[in-house]
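Two proteins were folded this term; both appear here.
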Amino acid sequence: MTTDAYPWSAGFRSLEEEHDYRLDEIDGQVPAWLRGTLFHNGPGRNDIGGKWFAHWFDGDGMIAAVRFGDDGMHFRNRYVATDNYRAETRAGRVVNRGFGNMRPGGVLGNAFRLPANVSNTSVLMDGDRLLSLWEGGAPYVMDPATLETRGVEDFGGKVKAFSAHPKRDPETGELFNFGVDYGAKCTLTPYRLSKGGLTALPAITLPYAVMNHDFVLTRNHLAFCIGPILQSPLAFLLGLKSFDGGLHWDSGKPTLILLVPRAGGQPRIIETDAFFQFHFANGYEEDGAVVIDLMRYPDYLTVGEAARNFWKSEWPAKGMATLTRLSIDLASGKVTSRTWDTGQANEFPFVNPASVGKRHRHTYFLSSPPDRPRGLQQRLSKLDCETGAVTHHDFGPDGYPGEPCFVAVPNGAEDDGVVITQVFDAARKRTDIVGLDARNVADKPLFVGRLTHHVPFCLHGTFTPRPQ
């Protein structure tokens, strides 16, 4: 199977092997205070039976864990043993519907069959267990030490869909999330998870069937920006189209800003100009306004096509996202926006977890420089939201970093910590674990741990100070 369409294409190759080893090659020094485990989730198997999957989001979930201990760095990866992974491993071919995949058998083989849960998008520490997340279904429970799959957690039947972007209030410890469910009506259900107990807030009926991936948590609200990326539920349910095939952008409809009270009560819906976003950096409330920082796309067209073609896409920078701040005046409902000069193709934003729901100063994200009109991002960038200063660490010409994860120095300032990212080296066809000084990401890395293989491009991760 060819994977040489572009330098980054080989980074999507499946990793069939499950590893467990201590890293022998580490350049630089891991800070003495950095102890714990970084978990990432992403599509680990992107092809089967000699054929690429129809969409990047169809890949079977694989957890990659990097432990930082007194004995050095340790890597372990395990597939999430979903029903889909086990069935398709046995068959050696696609047997279930997915985000883009269709089952064999044409319309009759796909009608009234929902996409299989591939649990491939994110991870969450919930007490002593690790939850593997995929927004179309319930989480899978993993053992954080061994990465053994224990089963599905639907919280006593309360959860059907559970988003891959939960938000934890750093002061109360409460976790908030949501799920979008499709049927005769499209509903969004917010959830509160506290001390192991899940409470479903009142479901919100949306005016049409949409796809929504993320939200922000503020002091008083869960805030959503629901762009007009619409689903054709009838064509999907009848087996005429995949979920991805049923999505279409309707620029004639507005983006809906949905403000859901944390304490309960009726949500507020504010209409604004159409845009799309996958990811938010953070949100907070100040001076009678809700402030939201997000990666804003002009529409879904460019990013949708790139994710559909993933390994063979040129990933064009034009039409991709820009780091944007929205301010919603709570009295008038007026929406204003501003952008920063942060380069092209901004994505995968991350802030210090202690800043979630509060005014933050620093945001870390991926970007591309103006002279690179195509390709996956090669820079890890930092924005000072107060001064507008932007600094970059460029991994070019061969390095392609993944989502940055901020690990804070205990009791330090907001940007006192280490930013860790997985970097695929297209020349060596291997992945490095790179730690940058969060105060100055442009500096030489604090450490580079070299894996003996590649890790397929991941999506989202989390750090826990427990060693596992």
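Next, the second protein.
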Amino acid sequence: MAEHRPQNPPPPATSNQRGIRHARELQGHVAWLESFSGSALGVLAVASGIYTYLGVSSLLDENGAMSVFAAIAYSVAVSVGIFVFWSYLLRLFPVMRSARSRAGLLGAMGLGSLAIVAMSSWLNAAALAGSAAVEQHLAKTVQDYQSSLERAHEIALSAQALERDVARVRQSFEDLSEQEAQGTLSGLAGRGAVFRVLRQKAAELQALETQIAEQTPRVEQAFAEGNGILSRMRALTVEPGPVEARSVEFSEAAVNLQGLITQLRQLSVATLVERAAQDLAASVVLPELDGRTEENRGDQAATITSVLEVLASRAETLERAAQSVIALTPASEVTYTPISAADAVILYARNFVPSWAGAIAIDLLPGVLVLILAVTQGAIREGRDGAELADTLTLAELRAAMVAFREVEADADAATAHEAAPTPAEGSPPVSAIRRGAS
């Protein structure tokens, strides 16, 4: 009866053996991933090239065959450049061992990434969000024009409000003239010299008041027309269809609106009231004193002097009111400048962060793969460090080594046998000749 011997358990795996198994497992995964990494990188490069083509097409003014060829050539160059750049890094960066070499390749990767963003990513963003960015530009321009129109209208209305100040000064002179007609100013009842001076200034103020009143309908009409144009411009920002065609109509409306804003500025009567107030006291035509006696004429002269003082005071008040309107901050100058989709995306980049992120990610995503491979290759090297050569050989590698060893031994035996064979003596006939003679 056979004696039963207990089997000894296998010795526990050492840390080197565990590291080698882990390295082999990672190496198998890397080999599987590398089988389609090139195709995936090519797809990303082609996708970036397509969006780059759309972005370049939006920058070209012409639509001829040469423009199409130029856009295709640029997009193909971008795709090839992205593919080659990341292929270099995917192959070279993970196998670098020294910190200096890795730092150098990291610097190269940073410069290359900046170049890719400069030549491709912003064009990709233009293709993704170009139309929306142009619409954003149109909407902002509408807001600027609306603010300018409202400010011009506000200043014009403030100038129109000077009509009440002019009417108040005119009314005061008319009241004084009535008092003079009754004899309560100079003591001489009737329509004498003092009465004519007061009526003269009242008539000037009445003419100014009429001129201001005539401007009111023009101001309101210009403001209403401006609002109508603004409504059309707002509609153009959200209408469906190509934004280029809408931009043309928007530009025409902007020119008309700018003309109305300029007209509103010109309709402001503040400057007119200021000049009229300055002339009110400076240009006084003094009539001939018509008192019958010297005493009466003296009373008229004294009253006219008092009237002129009152006139200067009222003119100064009216001038200050006009200057306060003139000192108001004027409406800002707004000029609509058509811009391309690429320029709009850059100008309003903060409003399109997701589009920018997607445009940059499609170009720089392989950089993440480079870092993943670098970490994985580092783990593989760490698992193999310190291990003997025999521990790192796989079964297939061992079989191949044994076959190669046998072939080397066979070649060595054949060479030894060849060297050990006797050589024929010098001058003797060859063996083949001896055999023929014997036969």
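The chain has two domains: 15-130+352-384, 132-340. The radius of gyration is 50 Å. These notes refer to the second protein only.
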